[in-house]
Amino acid sequence: MDIKVVIADDQALLRGGFRALLDSAPGIVVVAEASDGAEAVAAARQHRADIVLMDIRMPRVDGLEATRRISGDPELAGTKVIIVTTFESDEYVYEALRSGASGFLLKDTEPADLIQAVRVVAGGDALLSPSVTRRLVEDIAGRRFAQSRPRLPLAVLDVLTEREREVMALVAQGLSNDEIAAKLYLSPLTAKTHVSRAMTKLGARDRAQLVVTAYETGLVVPGAS
Question: Of 45, 18, 43, 17, which Cα lies nearest the Cα of 31?
Fold first, then answer.
C-alpha cells in the first residue's frame, strides 16, 4: 500500500518541488498540499495521511499548532509529522518535538534523504539522525534547559530498568540502535528491543519522544556526555 503524504508549506515552489520528487518514488503518493497549518490538519483527516511534511512558519495556524492538533487527535494516531525547517533560524524545532513531531529534515536536504525519511517514519521509526539530534540538543534543548529546571520528576523513569535508562540516555545523545549496540556490547536487535520497551513503558509516541523525556527529567543534561 502506498505511503500517503501531505505537504504543508506556504511556499508553492517548495511544495511543488517536494511533490514532484515524492510522486516519482515507488510506493509514495502525495495526496494533498497545504499552505497553512489548518489546511494541513484538514488534509490529514480527509486523506488519513501517513506522513505530513510540516513547515513551522506558516500563516493562520503555524506548523507547531498543527502538529499539536494532529498528535492529539485519536483519529490521526497513524499520522506522523516530519518538521521541514531551516534549522539554524528556527527556534521552535524543540517545541515541535514536544508537540509530537516524529523527526526533522532541513529544507536543503538531499532528494534521496527526503524519500528515505518518509519511508523511515512511515515504517514506525523516528527520524532522528545522530547529526541532527546532536545539533538539536546542543543548540536548542541546551539553551532551554540551561535556563530552567527539568520539567518532569526523575521518578517518571522508575518504570524503566537500569539498562533501559542507559539505552534511553544514549538515544537522547543521538546514537542509532547500531551505535548503542556497539557501545553497550549488545546485538542491534537487543538494543532496538530496549528502545521499544522504554517507549511502551513511558507511553512515548516514538523515539523522538524519548529524547524529550530524557531531557525533561534531567536524565541527560545538555552539554554532558
Answer: 43
- Count up the domains in the chain and report the number: 2
Q: What is the pLDDT along the chain (225 residues), one digit of tens a residue?
A: 899 999 999 999 999 999 999 999 999 999 999 999 999 999 999 999 999 999 988 999 999 999 999 988 989 988 999 988 775 545 666 677 778 888 878 788 888 888 988 988 887 766 655 555 555 555 555 555 555 555 778 889 999 999 999 999 998 877 888 889 999 999 989 999 999 999 899 988 777 778 888 888 888 876 555
Is residue 162 within a helix (H) or strand (E), and if so which, with residue range? Answer: helix 162-172
Residues belonging to the chain: 225
Residue 111 and residue 166 share a domain = no
Residue 109, domain CATH: 3.40.50.2300
Distance CA 110, CA 137 (A): 23
Does residue 89 sit in the same domain as residue 186?
no
For residues 147 and 135, give the distance between their C-alpha atoms in angstroms, rounded to a whole number: 18
Domain housing 25: 3-127
| Inside any domain, residue 48 | yes
Which set of grid coordinates corresponds to residue 80? 506522523
